[in-house]
Amino acid sequence: MTLKRVVITGLSAITPLGNDLATSWRNLLQGDSGVSPITTFDTSEHQTRFAGQVQGFDPTAYMSPKQARRLERFCTFSIACSKMLLEHAGLNEIPPEDQERTGCLIGCGLGGLKIFEETVVKLEHEGPRRVSPFAIPVYIANMSPGLSSIELQAKGPNLVTTSACASGIHAIIYAYSDIAMGRADIMVTGGVESTITSLGIAGFNAMRALSTRNDDPKRASRPFDKDRDGFVMGEGCGLLMLESLEHAQARGANILAEIVGGASSADAYHMTAPAEDGSGMARAMTSALRTAGMARAMTSALRTAGMAPEEIEHINAHATSTPLNDVTETRAIKTVFGKHAYDIPITANKSMIGHLLGGAGGVESAFSVMSLVDEVLPPTINLETPDPECDLDYIPEGKRHKKVANVLCNSFGFGGTNASVIFSRWDG
User: Fold this and answer.
1) To bridge 194 with a disulfide, which of 39, 102, 235, 364 should be the other Cys (CB 3.0-4.6 Å)?
2) Is 165 annotated as catalytic?
């Protein structure tokens, strides 16, 4: 069976750095931090009182005020990003003849945590008859791709991937597979999350997973730094439009990059901690290299074997700023790339936007594609005192202008779930 080549023809993002892709990307390259004190609820009793919040987002620019009031924040992000994605891909709408071959596959880790909290309180204090009929529909994570499909009239594959922090990249991998295997021509994919709530912060604080640097929030997310003390929660959405090469060329689309492979693995080790030797992460990255080579070989005869490690010229790391993850991911990169690991510039987007959980892979994949398009690599900020065990090139000095051919993007989640995807520069 010959696999179809899959290209990227559109990107969109809503992040703590901006309410669209262009603003977010510009601020990321400048090394700005989107982390600030939490303003949406009383944090006085919480150990952590800051997060990477989306600021000034107006959902009524993309939907009716009535719909905006009913929906959970993660759903409004999905709808807004879907509409921006369509525009970025040069489409006014999905043509009727393409609707049944267009799907939505979006990652989301937790869903509507805020409505869950509010509904439980109402149930306890006012009784079951006061529970809103919208409580369940707007809480469930699959409402993100569901509502996006309604907005776009995308009637092909429609589902959510929920695999903790790997949700977004898992979605991209499976959306890629749908097109490569011929099940769809267009896929809207990526990740979304909005869980900056009292329960979300309290839950992660109870696990001692969050930074508590309340006196200096903008410097709290510090991947690979010796003084890191936990991750910073963020929120937002990042989407990609994938198309088969034939479909994109037939409509004269502006092709941004090619997705050439992706893979996943499991640590089979611990509920929340990664395997300390990085073996599970390494398997995901190694498998992604192999699938990249296989897809390219079968579709264009460019290769007869897997992609060599030396072909990866940039890594967008998971890099959560937790004591365990950063060391483990560094070990995994060394396992996969050997001596070449020291020659690969590695960026940590979470140093500026925080950890978007299920939305992380979508946003960071969009930024990875922008690195290929604009030939510039974002910095890792707040890396002031490198951890001796984290001794690779993490771009701490500011953005770096560099033309690269292949970017590897990583996401690793609780439960020991790992995902890696590879994007390649499009040269026509």
Assistant:
1) 235
2) yes
